[in-house]
Amino acid sequence: MKRIAMASVAVAVIVLAIKYAAYRMTGSVALFSDALESIVNVVAGLIALWAVTLSYKPADSDHPFGHTKAEYLSAVIEGVLIVLAALLILREAWQAYLVPRAMEEPLIGIAINAAATTINAVWATYLIRQGAARRSPALAADGRHIMADVVTSVGVIGGLLIATSTGWTILDPLMAALVALNILREGYLVVMSSLSGLMDRAIDPEEEATVRDIISSHADGALEVHDLKTRLAGRAIFIEFHMVVPETMTVGIAHEICDRIEDALQVAFDGARVSIHVEPEGEAKQTGVPVL
């Protein structure tokens, strides 16, 4: 994951250089807004690299549950940067609207920007897939942000092609404003998704159903399992529940059942951290929906 985050920074720098060249060649405020968003991509990539590196630090006395939530902080910061970039783009679009200017060599600049957009599309797709596969909020947020950049870039290219063929210079600042509004929306989605993780959101219902099935199929000897709770912390999954056993069952046998369930859960969910509270039948206090 650290190598992926480092590569993301490198790709962002390359795309920024290409898009800035397109802006310098044309003087288009829409292409300038596209390049400005790429600056955010570079900074966001650096923050994601920091967060991924920190998230792999082992647990210590001050952070006994590890550092995996650092990735959510990365995504929140990235969302704030997206909003700042959008405000700067809106400012540039307004000034270009007040003082319209014709583009220079627009077709060459548009072609250069299209090449950068293609690079971004390929890399964003890869980041989104890796973020989902590795349960990395930082990589997933970076990928979604870059994909939003791709969508806005396609809109910019289409608008500038129309402006070039019709001579409607007003389309240049208009497309820049649309870019800003779109990345404002993306910034909102990134921040809200990260805040949900920081507030200990439960795992997806489909995954929780898998957890219930695994517990039920590996809890032979137990009488009941209840009060199942799950939460996400970056790529880590925490699972806890109460298991009721016969009063005559020895601690050793109860421990064997716990080990069997824990091993099965960790096979299904890499890195899952499982806590099981064992209760004798006469002392069981069920407050949640039973699993078994």
TrEMBL record:
What is the membrane topology here? Multi-pass membrane protein
The subcellular location is: Cell membrane
Domain Cation efflux protein transmembrane, chain residue ranges per copy: 6-199
Name the lineage. Bacteria, Pseudomonadati, Pseudomonadota, Alphaproteobacteria, Hyphomicrobiales
The species this protein was found in: Aurantimonas manganoxydans (strain ATCC BAA-1229 / DSM 21871 / SI85-9A1)
Q: What is this protein called?
A: Protein p34
- Which Pfam families does the annotation name? Cation_efflux, ZT_dimer
One GO molecular-function entry: zinc efflux antiporter activity
Per UniProt, residues of the Cation efflux protein cytoplasmic domain are 204-281
The Gene Ontology biological process annotation of the record reads:
intracellular zinc ion homeostasis
Which family is this sequence assigned to? Answer: Belongs to the cation diffusion facilitator (CDF) transporter (TC 2.A.4) family.
What are the record keywords, sorted? Cell membrane, Membrane, Transmembrane, Transmembrane helix, Transport
